[in-house]
Each structure stands twice: as structure tokens, then as C-alpha cells.
Design goal:
129 residues, alpha+beta, 4 strands, 23% strand, globular
Length: 129
């Protein structure tokens, strides 16, 4: 009984951590809505390139690092953004659905920033402590 209670409490703690963790890094993006931004996804349900990138990042994650993967819509396209708490620039790791990195020198960042919608946090992982 004690083991079942412990597992249940750990599951609730994990859900609470996940719920509060995704919604505070990109709240200032206009397309972000406070409700419905959490939607965690298994790596097997992601595009192969994204799953492979996450596996690579997890393997090499520095201590105390936190990664969050977001998905959104922009100009009828699915876009993926990998947030890292130690990154020196916001949206540097943003990709089209096919895995092509967005080149912000060729793409209007302001248009993306204002018009991107349906933001969802789809994956969270942390480096070692």
C-alpha cells in the first residue's frame, strides 16, 4: 500500500511540475494562450528528425539544464521550437516540420512572433543534477 501511495504521489508531482514548467518561458509570444499550452508527446509520435535531435540533446545535456520542445502553427505550417534555459538567444533553435532550421535572416521574425498560434509544449527534459 505504501509503495502504491508513493507512486501515486510521484505521478501527481510530475504532472504538477509539467503543468507549471511549460507555461513560463515564452508567455510573451502573442499566440500563446494561458490555457491549453501543455500537451506532452512521446518521442515515438514526433517526426523522426525531432526525436533524434531530442535523444542527442538528452545524451549531452549539461548539468542543471532544462529543455522544452514547443510546437506551433505559422503560415499554415507546423513549427517546432526547442527552448534551452542556458541559451543566449530566443528562438535560435526553431525548425520547420521537415527539420529545416529557420534562418531568421531570411524570414520575418516579427511576422512569426505576432502571427504564430496554437503553441503547445510537447516535451520536457532536464540535464543531470
Amino acid at each position: 500500500m505504501k509503495k502504491t501511495t508513493f507512486i501515486f504521489l510521484m505521478a501527481i508531482a510530475a504532472i504538477c511540475f509539467t503543468t507549471t514548467s511549460c507555461s513560463n518561458d515564452i508567455d510573451d509570444v502573442p499566440g500563446i494562450e494561458r490555457q491549453g499550452t501543455i500537451s506532452l508527446m512521446a518521442k515515438k509520435d514526433m517526426p523522426d528528425w525531432l526525436s533524434e535531435k531530442i535523444t542527442e540533446l538528452e545524451k549531452d545535456a549539461p548539468p542543471l539544464s532544462l529543455y522544452k520542445v514547443y510546437k506551433c502553427k505559422w503560415e499554415s505550417q507546423t513549427i517546432y521550437y526547442i527552448y534551452w534555459n542556458f541559451a543566449s538567444c530566443k528562438f535560435c533553435t526553431t525548425f520547420y516540420a521537415d527539420g529545416t532550421k529557420i534562418d531568421w535572416e531570411k524570414v520575418d521574425f516579427n511576422d512569426f512572433y505576432i502571427k504564430s498560434t496554437n503553441w503547445k509544449c510537447i516535451y520536457i527534459f532536464e540535464g543531470p543534477y
